[in-house]
Amino acid sequence: MIKVGRNDPCPCGSGKKFKKCHLGREDELSFDGMEEFTEEMSRMITSLREVSYGRCREMADSLDIPGLTGKDLGVRFVDLRDYQGLNFYGTGGGKATEEKGGSVFINLNKTRQTDPRHVYIAVSRDIDDSSLVHQLAHVVDYLAGSGIMPGLQDPLSYEVDVPVEHLEHTREFGYWLRYLKDRFDVELDADDAIIDFLYESGRLLEGGLIERKDGPSIRTGSNAILTYLAEHQQELDALIRERPGYIGEK
User: Fold this and answer.
1) Cα dist from 117 to 34, 46, 74, 120, 152, whole Å
2) Per-residue pLDDT tens for 98-108?
3) Which of 24, 124, 167, 223 is the most exposed place for a label (fewest CB within 10 A)?
4) Which element (helix H / strand E) includes 139?
């Protein structure tokens, strides 16, 4: 396996530092011939033990993904530590992997070779409801919304100089987060409550801007998000103060 530091030259040969080139898009290196993600590696993921921590199976089993997305796919959950223990590119990241409720929506390019009928989410034993609906929203959004897979937007974030959260949590993602929150009666944590707050106000970026890599429009929209949050700081603070993940002073 190729091991590359954030400040090392990118293996693709662009001459850029890894963090400003293929960081977050490591799977593309395999397609460029730099590192092949083999069928054996795929099988190592799809063979991981399936788990049902928290409300994982309850939510997944009652969610009609084919009906919502038109894609005949199911969801399987694997243990986050087991997944990270494989030490492949991209086994970190995701939503709070080292904190309570850690989870990762595993890139489909890593699993479709050996199990094209399922998407995989790696979850921690203490997975909470907000993290679950967050990852399920990413799944449905990828299949039938913005088409954006989390964990792959770092290079664009560096290029256009906006927070990666603004690129991964689009208006389409916000729609599905709201849908799932209501569907499963979940109180969102502080981070997800902010996304929901921005969705309700119509401030989240549209997925098409990210797909087209429309730098000027992305920067304008990102600045508008930051301005809106600053202008509504007291209202937002009151909304998230008592929620898990709040980092301000209570």
Assistant:
1) 27, 11, 6, 10, 22
2) 445 689 999 99
3) 223
4) helix 129-144
Give me 72's structure tokens.
């005949």
Percent of the chain with pLDDT over 90: 68
Lowest mean pLDDT among 10-14, 92-96, 223-227: 92-96
One-character DSSP codes across 62-106: H--HHHHHS---EEEEEEHHHHHTT--TTSS-SB-TTSTT-EEE-
Q: What share of the chain is helix, strand, coil (3-state, %, to 5)?
A: 50, 10, 45
Kindly state the tokens that stand for 37: 């993600």
Position 16 pLDDT exceeds 80: no
Higher pLDDT, 154 or 226: 226
Residue 177 near residue 137 (C-beta atoms within 8 A): yes
pLDDT tens for each residue of 159-171: 899 999 999 999 9
The predicted model scores a pTM of 0.84
Q: Is the dihedral of CA 168, 246, 221, 198 positive or negative?
A: positive
User: What's the first-to-final CA gap in the chain, in angstroms?
Assistant: 46
Reported as a pLDDT band with limits 50, 70 and 90, residue 246 is confident
Question: Cα separations (Å) of 206 from 130, 146, 214, 216, 222?
Answer: 23, 8, 11, 13, 11
CA distance 171 to 177: 10
217 and 211 Cβ atoms separated by less than 8 Å: no
Q: Could you give the dihedral angle defined by the CA atoms of residues 218, 15, 151 and 74, in that order, rounded to the nearest 10 degrees?
A: 110
β pairing state of 118-123 and 103-105: antiparallel
